[in-house]
Structures are given as C-alpha cells and as structure tokens.
Design brief:
- By secondary structure, this protein is mainly alpha-helical.
- The chain has helices at 3-23, 31-52, 58-84, 90-121.
- The chain is elongated.
Length: 125
C-alpha cells in the first residue's frame, strides 16, 4: 500500500469506529435493525477494501473495491435514515456525512485509477 491507500484505510477505520460509537446511543429497539445494518455495512467498507489487496488478479481487486464503495453508499443512507428518525445528534450526523464523503471521493479515485490501469493494459482476467 502506498501513502494514499494507507490514508484511505485509516479514514475507513475511523469511520467504522465512529459508527460503532454513535450506535451505542441508538434505541435498544433498533439493535437488530438499523444498529446491526449500519454496523455491518460500515465494517464491510474496510473489510472489502483490505481483502481487495490480498487478490492478485486486478479484476478481482476491482470487484472488492466496488463492493466496498457499495457498502459505503449503504451506510451513508443509513446515516440519513437515522438522522431523520432522530437516532443521531446533528453534530454526529454531519461528522459521519463528512467522513463518508471523504472516503467516497478517495475510494472512487482508487477505483478509477484501477479501471484506467486495466484499460491501458487491456486486462480481461
């Protein structure tokens, strides 16, 4: 991993710990609903990103990065949902959205760069 990728991984780590922290204050009735879903989706962001680096085939790596991005979008929506349901304080909502946006931009750059490298090399596996 280069420095950019380490920074992205650290941001993802910060985000998942943030989500786990804020969901401790959610209603107990949501433990098996929103709490479980947002925790799983936020953890899947970093887990898929990390797993992508264990793969030798660039297209497989790309697939894991795209799954990571999909989980980011899911967790971002769950922040919106939780805020509208008054599970989140405004400060936490905006902090989570800021982290999500920053991770999304960085991860999209990673995906775009990998797609360009694949296109340049005409890799199909």
């Amino acid at each position: 991993m280069n420095e950019y990728q380490r920074r992205l991984k650290n941001k993802m780590d910060e985000y998942v710990h943030f989500v786990y922290k804020i969901t401790k204050e959610f209603p107990k009735s949501e433990l098996y609903g929103v709490v479980s879903q947002i925790r799983r989706s936020s953890l899947s962001i970093i887990l898929n990103y990390i797993e992508g680096y264990t793969r030798e085939k660039p297209l497989v790596r790309l697939n894991f990065f795209e799954m990571s991005y999909g989980y980011l979008v899911e967790s971002d929506y769950l922040l919106d949902f939780s805020y509208k349901e008054n599970y989140l304080q405004e400060e936490n909502y905006y902090r989570g959205k800021s982290l999500s946006k920053e991770i999304g931009a960085m991860l999209w750059t990673e995906i775009s760069n990998l797609k360009k490298a694949l296109s340049d090399k005409k890799i199909t596996k």
